[in-house]
Amino acid sequence: KAKEKGRGLVQFYESHWQQEKEEKLRLDAKLRQALAGHRLDVHYQPIVDSSNGLPVAFEALVRWNDSEEGMIPPFKFIPVAESSGLIREVDLEVLRMVVEDIRQWQQAFGGDLPFTVAINLSAIELSADHVDRLTEVIRSSGVAHRLELEITESLMMQDTEESVKLIRQIKAAGIAKLAIDDFGTGYSSMGYLKRFKVDKLKIDQSLVRDIDHDPSDRAIARAIVALGKALDLTVVAEGVETETHQGLLCKEGVPLLQGYLFARPMPGEDVVGWVKERRRNGPMHVCPI
Ligand code: C2E
Ligand code: MG
Ligand code: MG
Ligand code: MG
Description:
alpha/beta; eight-stranded mixed β-barrel; binds magnesium ion
């Protein structure tokens, strides 16, 4: 009897596993089609200067609105694309769309943009040919000095000569900044910050979320700000949702803030209007001086 039961359980897990695998394959094939048909889009979320509330950058976030399934969120398809390798095409497509959007915004502004645009780069496989393709697009874009790249800590931990070389190659293409995303959650060996010539640290939103009732999260935020000062890196807090978050991050001296409190990610068409209105309204006292 017990044996039968055990077998049933194994079958249950096997079929569950099989189903998950099939679902991933299905999603991956669908994503491939969406890429081929240029049906992905990018939304942009502002990062504001905590001294005046003005946007200093926008983060580009990929969006996939499927005709049958509606919005498929990044947390569903990015891991799938990372395991199949398709993420490289996603990142390249996002880079191209961002370059195109920047060009249009420059026309609307009648000159260079008063902000930079950050792109997320998957760290899964940073191979030489992929970096060659990325740097080629960046170099020929004419807007490299307005681009930032965000990479998560995990890649930096592959602290090999090869990855140091590749990261330096991307920076040499003329990008404005290299940021470490989700900082403070991973491994945080500090050595790589120097070797990779990092410019910016993004305090992970999990640390911001509980900052009002978790003293250790607050201490970590304070330590990251101190690290930024010591190494001359700028610091952003992401996931700022409430006035309480904002107040505490101000007290810790975080210079840049990003989160729903300021704006949700918006379509590219809305960016220029949003920036102009912010500038028209003049400086806001996000953090008391
Ligand atoms: P991330 O790079 O850390 O981006 C921040 C995520 O937090 C975004 O989710 C953003 O919409 C969300 N967010 C912003 N403010 C708040 C807030 O106040 N509260 C909360 N709860 N969330 C907030 P999104 O767009 O769903 O992206 C999730 C992740 O997917 C990103 O995390 C990034 O790792 C990845 N991703 C997004 N676009 C791309 C892309 O083009 N390429 C790659 N490789 N990864 C991407
Ligand atoms: Mg990011
Ligand atoms: Mg993050
Ligand atoms: Mg668009």
